[in-house]
Amino acid sequence: MANSRRDKADSYTLKARKEGYPARSVYKLEEINQTHKLIKPGDTVLDVGAAPGSWTLFTHRELIKGKGKIVSVDLNPLNLNPVPPTVIEFTGDAFSKEIRAQLVEHGPYDTIISDAAPMTTGNRTVDTTRSEWLAEQVVFLAEEQLKVHGNLVIKIFQGGGQEQVLKNMRTLFNKAKAFKPKACRDDSFEIYLIGLDKK
Ligand SMILES: C[S@@+](CC[C@H](N)C(=O)[O-])C[C@H]1O[C@@H](n2cnc3c(N)ncnc32)[C@H](O)[C@@H]1O
């Protein structure tokens, strides 16, 4: 059948492969930026949960256009060869004392993007709780390290807690909303929270 859920997923995967991106998630950031204009050429961007590196590569190529800086951090190394010249990579827990100190050293940032996700267990309560914790940590980071007028996007698994995270974001940003890109798999329970224009 031509337009089943997985056919849609496969078309994004094939497109990503053809365009040299290591993951199909690149098209989520493309749509988020098209609709919300988070990043512009020359920006300093922090990418949290960056591996294998599609968001980082897309930001380098299409958003900052090779100007500016991307600080990319993940528990795992980026799978980009070569790593673009605008990218400074850190491997480790973004919220550990050591890595956090490095992120602070390279800040503050015009935009923070986070597609960070926990290893899923299949237990929806456990997975959403871990995702909410990651999202909260990124909001704390944005509180400290995002410039005034800066923008934020974070992934969160839907389970109820996203309303509290959004509420916190509303105190920090002039505009905050939830957004589900078309490239999310139909059966996925992830959603993105977007904060625009930090107060
Ligand atoms: C869906 S993947 C990100 C895909 C990426 N945006 C891309 O386009 O290639 C989620 C990532 O979050 C990372 N992650 C989860 N917890 C993290 C943490 N505490 N610190 C850094 N990275 C973390 C995982 O290692 C994983 O690589």
Instruction: Tell me which ligands are bound.
Output: S-adenosylmethionine
Largest sheet: 7 strands, mixed
**Domains counted in the coordinates: how many?**
1
CATH superfamily: Vaccinia Virus protein VP39
Q: What is the β-strand count?
A: 7
- Number of helical segments? 6
Secondary structure category = alpha/beta
Report on the structure:
By secondary structure, this protein is of the alpha/beta class. The chain has one domain: Rossmann fold (3-Layer(aba) Sandwich). The chain has helices at 5-18, 26-36, 54-63, 97-106, 124-145, 162-172; strands at 44-48, 69-74, 87-91, 109-114, 146-157, 173-179, 190-198. It has a seven-stranded mixed beta sheet, sandwiched between helices. α2 (26-36) crosses α3 and α5 (124-145) packs parallel to α6. 40% of the residues are buried. S-adenosylmethionine (SAM) binds next to α3 and β2. S-adenosylmethionine is lined by residues 22-23, 25-26, 49-55, 73-76, 93-95, 115-118, 134.
Features:
Rossmann fold, alpha/beta, disordered N terminus, globular, 6 helices, seven-stranded mixed sheet, binds S-adenosylmethionine, 7 strands, single chain, 199 residues
Summary?
With 199 residues, this protein is an alpha/beta fold. It is 39% helix and 25% strand. A 7-stranded mixed beta sheet has the order 3-2-1-4-5-7-6, with helices on both faces.
